[in-house]
Design a protein that fits this description.
about 260 residues, alpha/beta, D-Maltodextrin-Binding Protein, domain 2, 2 domains, five-stranded mixed sheet, 12 helices, 14 strands, about 45% helix, globular
């Protein structure tokens, strides 16, 4: 009898807990605040501008989401390796970073539909002799990557003979390490590299013509597994944003030009 009662209580607890967890969207509206975790060092996705304000493509999308929800936006800044823990702990409702959905990551968090696609690349100094990725895949070559990034995974997969050196922070860190002579080449998504190059001496860094991997990698917002209604809402949001032109406006400004550099 006791076992039966305990089983019923456990079932009720699981149902109540699941129901509470599933109401993430209702909690945000009731709270009046959408909390979004970003990594502010990854222009044009998310960064702190010259006025000290959080901005970037993903931040603008998050602002638009909050506006359409009728709530305030709270941006929470974390290092790359702190983004997923921040989401899982409940500090943030949404993870907004230039993160690629992978099977391993999906064991912990749920990714929304991709909102953009990028392609991994190898970059090096302009005077280096590397012409193709195979030239970098040697034991005496050190390749810089961002810790925990897809670039790190791809570098280990396609450049197994090279020495991989990891850095914490945004893509700028690898370019700085390259120009300082700490690494011979770097691996990151092509947009992240091209975006920061204007901040360094002209023609000091170049991308190898051939990209790494089999194709372009998707980028996606993420939520906790139990936040099903928020996951559905974000997917619906991007459908509306694409239909009313706000998506194209964001992409053209942040991803397809460098006009934002003058404003931020």
């Amino acid at each position: 009898m006791k076992k039966r009662v305990l089983a019923v209580l456990l079932a009720l607890t699981m149902i109540m807990t699941g129901t509470a967890m599933a109401n993430t969207l209702a909690d945000i509206v009731q709270r009046g605040e959408l909390r979004v975790a970003v990594q502010s060092g990854a222009a044009p996705y998310a960064f702190v501008d010259k006025n000290g304000d959080h901005t970037g493509s993903m931040v603008d999308f998050a602002k638009d989401m909050a506006d359409r929800m009728g709530v305030k936006l709270k941006i929470l800044d974390f290092d790359w390796d702190g983004l997923i823990p921040a989401l899982l702990s409940g500090k943030a409702d949404i993870l907004a970073a230039d993160m690629t959905p992978t099977l391993k990551r999906h064991l912990k968090i749920t990714f929304c539909d991709p909102w953009y696609y990028v392609q991994p690349c190898v970059f090096t100094t302009n005077d280096a002799t590397f012409l193709k990725p195979e030239d970098v895949n040697k034991p005496d070559v050190t390749v810089g990557v961002l810790l925990g990034s897809t670039g790190e995974t791809i570098a280990k997969q396609y450049l197994p003979n090279a020495q991989i050196k990891t850095y914490k922070g945004g893509g700028r860190m690898i370019v700085q390490a390259l120009l300082a002579g700490h690494v011979d080449a770097g691996v990151n998504d092509d947009l992240a590299v091209l975006t920061v190059l204007p901040d360094f001496p002209p023609k000091s860094v170049r991308l190898l013509d051939r990209r790494l991997g089999q194709g372009k990698d998707p980028l996606a917002f993420a939520v906790r597994h139990e936040s099903v209604n928020l996951w559905q809402w974000i997917n619906l949001y991007f459908a509306f944003a694409r239909s009313d032109g706000s998506y194209d406006k964001n992409i053209k400004y942040w991803m397809e030009s460098t006009d934002w550099k003058k404003d931020h």
